Amino acid sequence: MNLYLRLLLTLIFGVRRERLAPHQESNSSFRVLPHDIDVFGHMNNGRYLQIMDVARVQWMLQAGVLRAMRVSRWGATLGGNLIRYRHALKLFRRYVVRTRLVHWNERWFFFEHAFIDGDGRTVATGLSRAALRDRQGWVSTDVVVGAVAPGACTPPMPDAVTRWLAADQTLERCQARCDTQPTSPSLEHAS
């Protein structure tokens, strides 16, 4: 089942799920399918990031964010992911992704994703950040929260998010340095 089919099923069946408050956790169930597998016989590491996208959409649907996006004509933008793998997920293995909103600042919403296998083991954990935009630019998280859960307050920033943002700043400096260096001759003629 490809990503788009998983997203479609999430949208169809997610409508029937209970409504969540912003701080509540959403649980998305999946199974490792043949197209998820890499040459080593377990779920490909890139697939985890796609599954995080689907799980975040389910959370957004249950929390009422997708409805607010549709009404206000907002679009979503992913600002990055961080993931740690601990155990492999093998073919046809069932697993759940627990997704929860852990913090927000003036622009970004930060999510935690935990991949739990059928034995209750955490096989991977991830963080992601997402923001909303309209035609004028970034939509403030205060506006989004006001539309979805007026009066909700952000939890304190978890240490993991603080450290991730610090590492992200290091990568941003690396990117700026790469942007100022001349293009490598071997890349100029690449097709």
Give the arrangement of secondary structure elements.
Elements: H1 3-14, E1 26-31, H2 45-63, H3 65-72, E2 75-85, E3 94-104, E4 109-117, E5 122-134, E6 137-139, H4 141-148, H5 159-180, H6 185-188
Antiparallel strand pairs: 1-3, 2-5, 3-4, 4-5, 5-6
Helix pairs in contact: 1-2
Q: What gap, in angstroms, lies between the N and C termini?
A: 32 Å
* Biggest sheet architecture: 6 strands, antiparallel
- The helix fraction, in percent, is 25-40%
Question: In total, how many beta strands?
Answer: 6
Whole-number radius of gyration?
18 Å
What's the rounded overall pLDDT mean?
91
Number of helices: 6
- Model regions low in confidence, pLDDT < 50 over at least 5 residues: none
How would you portray this structure in words?
- It is a single chain.
- By secondary structure, the protein is an alpha+beta fold.
- The chain has six helices and six strands; from the N terminus they run αβααβββββααα.
- It has helices at residues 3-14, 45-63, 65-72, 141-148, 159-180, 185-188, and strands spanning 26-31, 75-85, 94-104, 109-117, 122-134, 137-139.
- Strands 1, 2, 3, 4, 5 and 6 form a six-stranded antiparallel sheet that branches.
- Strand 5 and strand 6 (137-139) form a beta hairpin.
- Helix 1 (3-14) runs parallel beside helix 2.
- The longest helix has 22 residues, at 159-180.
- The protein is globular.
- The model has no long low-confidence stretch (mean pLDDT 91).
